[in-house]
Amino acid sequence: MIYYITGGTRSGKSNYAQKLALGLCHNPVYLATARKWDADFEDRIKRHQQDRDESWENIEEEKHPSKLVLKGRVIVLDCVTLWLTNFFSDTKYNIDETLSSMKAEIDELAIIEATWIIISNEIGMGMHADTEVGRKFADLQGWINQHLAAKADKAIFMVSGIPLNLK
Question: Distance (Å, rounded) from C-alpha 48 to C-alpha 112?
Answer without folding.
Answer: 26
